[in-house]
Design brief:
Blueprint: H1 6-16, E1 22-24, H2 39-43, E2 48-52, E3 56-57, E4 63-66, H3 71-88, E5 94-98, H4 120-133, E6 138-142, H5 151-158, E7 162-168, H6 180-183, E8 192-196, H7 199-204, H8 210-220, E9 222-226, H9 231-246, E10 253-259, E11 263-265, E12 271-278, E13 289-295, E14 301-311, E15 325-331, E16 341-350, E17 356-358, E18 371-379
Parallel strand pairs: 1-5, 5-6, 6-7, 7-8, 8-9, 11-18
Antiparallel strand pairs: 2-3, 2-4, 10-12, 12-15, 13-14, 13-16, 16-17, 16-18
Helix pairs in contact: 3-4, 4-5
């Protein structure tokens, strides 16, 4: 009942303070520390097994893994997860939470721990546990749950969870990854998550293939890529690759064209026309509405015109450099107290009320995800 959240708050705030998000996996079995599940849980009567990596269950093994069906373990873990959910469910700073309570490293398998096989129903218990406690934040199920039964992945999907596939590029081709077909049921609805293998060991064993990593992002329609190495070193060695990944990962909403009358009277209703595309591999899951904002010479907002008939969520995905484009238009009237003059025109995508939410790959922004695209002259009668 006592939780030292500073263990995660400190590293999390380093990213949140930059305007970014974090994600969590609470694991219960590790290959580098004996008690990923606290020792007091074992002392409370939870059944478990000593193991040695590469050997499996070993009476004298240095590590301990809980029995994933044990009622004491499940009760204690649910108590912890309830506290975590009270803190993080619906927290906008948290992108997703993994179902991390089954398997070594929370990866959904026991290959590197006890090597014990569990029935499909065991995994479903753990999926149910997270589904019961996390109602707002996205929850991810691991592809390796399928080793305990073919029905586990479909069950996670039915519970509204997304898919995560850990350790792409562990093995050299043709075994770089295995479960792209699983992602096909998920990506139209939920952002799919990939993680690549520890970078340097993958390079050392000849498994690191940049083109295959990019291919996996395409085939999984991935929205997140977890970096499995020291970030600064990875960035230094793979900056070009990261640039390529960022142009395709998830959604990438582009305003290809925008036009409006150069000059209008206050009594007229100007028509705004724009052309949009999604250059990423995944849908724009949160969606958003196009807005044109007019600002005066001092930067004050004078008018906001939102096209509520078009949601960028509907923009289809396509192969690289082949995104389908959609032309949309809307007509708007000026408020009675609108002054005459020349105004800067900004485009944005966000809420129905014109609040920008989605960053666009355009220059000249106002610091609030509005992007200057031109001017308009408004004439008095």
């Amino acid at each position: 009942g006592q939780y030292d959240w500073s263990v995660v708050d400190a590293p999390a705030q380093r990213w949140i303070d930059k305007g970014l998000q974090v994600a969590f996996r609470f694991t219960v079995s590790e290959s580098w520390m004996r008690y990923a599940t606290p020792k007091w849980v074992e002392d409370a009567g939870a059944k478990g097994y000593n193991f040695t990596v590469g050997k499996g269950v070993d009476e004298n093994g240095p590590f301990w893994e809980p029995d994933y069906d044990d009622p004491v373990f499940l009760a204690k873990h649910e108590q912890f997860l309830a506290a975590a959910a009270a803190r993080y469910d619906g927290n906008p700073n948290v992108a997703f939470v993994d179902v991390g309570s089954f398997g070594v490293w929370g990866e959904g398998h026991t290959f590197a721990s006890t090597r014990k096989q569990y029935p499909e129903e065991t995994v479903k218990k753990h999926i149910d546990l997270y589904a019961r406690l996390f109602h707002k934040t996205l929850v991810a199920a691991n592809d390796d749950f399928s080793f305990q039964g073919d029905g586990t992945i479909q069950y996670a999907l039915e519970k509204g969870m997304t898919l995560r596939d850990d350790s792409i590029l562990v093995q050299p081709p043709p075994n770089s990854y295995f479960h792209a077909e699983m992602a096909q049921a998920f990506w139209p609805k939920f952002p799919v998550i990939l993680e690549h293998e520890h970078y340097q060991p993958s390079v050392d064993r000849g498994a690191w293939k940049r083109d295959i990593l990019l291919r996996a992002i395409e085939e999984y329609h991935a929205s997140y890529l977890t970096i499995h190495w020291f970030p600064r070193e990875f960035l230094e060695k793979e900056r070009e690759l990261i640039g390529q990944v960022n142009l395709r990962l998830g959604y990438r909403i582009q305003c290809r064209e925008a036009s409006w009358p150069a000059s209008v009277k206050l009594s007229e209703r100007p028509r705004f026309v724009s052309v949009w595309a999604n250059a990423g591999v995944a849908p724009c899951y949160p969606g958003g509405y196009v807005a044109f904002t007019l600002k005066d010479a001092k930067g004050g907002i004078a008018a906001v015109f939102v096209n509520e008939q078009f949601d960028v969520r509907i923009l289809p995905t396509g192969p690289p450099n082949e995104a389908a484009v959609k032309s949309v238009e809307s007509v708007h009237g000026f408020a009675p107290n609108m002054p005459a003059g020349t105004f800067d025109v900004f485009v944005s995508v966000g809420q129905r009320d014109g609040t920008p939410k989605i960053a666009l790959p355009l220059p000249d922004h106002d610091g609030h995800r509005r992007y200057k695209v031109g001017k308009i002259q408004i004439r008095a009668e």
